[in-house]
Design brief:
alpha/beta; Nucleotidyltransferase, domain 5; five-stranded mixed beta sheet
């Protein structure tokens, strides 16, 4: 059973992201405020549950959340800022959408760029410990997976509907054969594949 809050007397928002290690596509963050009175069965880290269950939980989270936000950083922003700063940007954009304004932020992981006026706590593997972070992980992953599946219809040779832009052997071979698209992160491609591409 995941914890409902860190501080019982504060409005808390859980924050998580998806897509940091991908060779292609946006990075997505979600922020979720859940009522302490709400318990969502089967809620867990999005990576540990099936796609079908994620879809079901995604609907329940949206239905039951006090507030939620989805923030995105583009491929261009990732290349310009670097992936860490782009991730913080996506997180801040998600937080900006919350109403009411949370009093405290629960961040999955060990690093975060402070959001103005709101204290935060970083929690390693927080998506396996707190409801709100797990909920954020599910919203972020569902949003990004749908985005990558839509892109895959335009560029089927990269199999983004299966690998979601990550560096699978099939994805790397497709890049070697067809080159890269505007949806590929050039800084990632150059660092990871330079010996084979040039």
């Amino acid at each position: 059973m995941l914890a409902k809050y860190l501080y019982q007397d504060k409005i808390e928002a859980g924050i998580d992201e998806v897509g940091r290690g991908s060779l292609a596509g946006i990075v997505v963050a979600a922020a979720v405020i859940l009522s302490p009175c709400v318990q969502i069965p089967q809620l867990n880290d999005s990576k540990q549950i099936s796609a079908a269950l994620r879809e079901k939980l995604n609907e329940e989270i949206i239905k039951n959340a006090v507030s939620y936000g989805i923030g995105v950083a583009s491929v261009q922003e990732i290349d310009q800022l670097n992936i860490l700063q782009a991730t913080y940007l996506a997180m801040h954009r998600a937080i900006e959408q919350l109403n009411p304004i949370p009093m405290h932020l629960l961040i999955d992981g060990n690093r975060f760029k402070p959001y103005p006026g709101i204290p935060h706590t970083c929690i390693i593997k927080g998506d396996t410990k707190y409801q709100s972070i797990a909920a954020a992980s599910i919203l972020a992953k569902n949003y990004r997976d749908k985005y990558m599946r839509e892109l895959s219809k335009i560029h089927p040779q990269y199999q983004w509907d299966k690998n979601m832009g990550y560096a699978t052997m099939q994805h790397i071979q497709a890049i070697q054969q067809y080159g890269y698209t505007s949806h590929h992160r050039k800084t990632f491609i150059i660092k990871a594949l330079q010996p084979t591409l040039f």
